[in-house]
Specification:
Chain lengths: 186, 250
Amino acid sequence: MNDNMIIDLYFARDNSAISETDEKYGSYLRKIAANILANREDEEECINDTYLKIWNTIPPLKPLSLQAYASRIIRNIAFDKYRRITAEKRGGSDVPLILDELGEIVSGKDTPEAEIDRKELVRAIADFLDTLKIEKKAYFICRYWHAMSMKDIAKKYGKSENHIAVSLSRTRNKLKDHLTERGFSI
Amino acid sequence: MKKEDLFEAIGELDSNIPQVKKSMPVWLKVTAAAACFAFVIAGIRIADSFNTAGRPTTTATNAMITMESKEEQGTINEFSAGAKEDKIIYEGALVGTETTQTTTEVETSDVFHPWPDAESALKNNFDIYGGCYLDEKQELVVLLTEDTPENREKVCADMNVNAELAKFREVKYSKAYLDAIHDKITDVMMNRQFETIVTSGVMEMENYVEVTLTEEDKEAIEFLNRLDNTGAINIVYGSVSTTAELIAKK
């Protein structure tokens, strides 16, 4: 079933919309949650919350890509849950490492919201990624969007973990320069 | 800005991972290069050993160079070889828009065998012909499942070699039998039925089919035993992989 047909089911308030979504994107969404949370119970909770949010937002929303929409929702939900879990000191994903890596780019200080327009920042990062070679862009998305481990990325692309780590480190340095040059007070 | 904010901002990007062509791992590249090199060396040595017995290597090489240089102008028409005392004159001829002829004299061993026609020997004597090879003295050794004077004459006649100048050795398995086993193993390798089977080859001198397994694989071994459990298959274990992987990653 294609995305439009599934979205039509949501608009018709047909419960099968959720099962169809799960059948088509369930494993993909679970993988995103698993990368961030590394806890099966939490992952399932995230999945359920994601489907509920999709159910509650479609309609009125009609996303162009159900996959992109659902994946963004589950990433946000999983990351919120990750923050709660961290406060409770449990969980074993790569996210702490990933955040430390991203910490090399930013100052870590509170920045007045007015100074950083989120949309501008996202656009600047997207522009930066477009300047990268395709494999470096892929490593970046795998690591910092999907929160994949270095090991999984290395396996996916047939490279060594060291190669991936070095490549990502260079990309982070370039991203920092890119954002600084564009006046972002990060 | 906090790192969590950056992580969240990245989350608003397109989640699609760009398609990257998966590169061949370094170890596989090295293995493949080594395998190619080994094949080239083996090919040269085989050609060399046959040429020493039947044809002069240096002449053949020269002739090949001539032919390659004329490849666009003509096609290879015929080879002829002949013996003259202890010298051999080899002629390579081309036809087409331009014809060239090379004649080179080279030293060879005292024993001369014409190029053995192993294909005819196999075709006409599938039950008795076991293969052939050149021994360390570069003398032709013909393998027979029943070493009788009649079989010697018959096989040598089909091979177009002088039986009096050849050596003979009795072996257990015919070449046709070993080829049939090898073909069946090749089929399962091509179908990737057993990924652990990575090489198969008929070893004429040893009179068996040598099969390389990357690891002990009960199912693969059972399959090989079903093909033959009398000793026609020799299993070796090695890390050289890759027939299946090379096909898969092509």
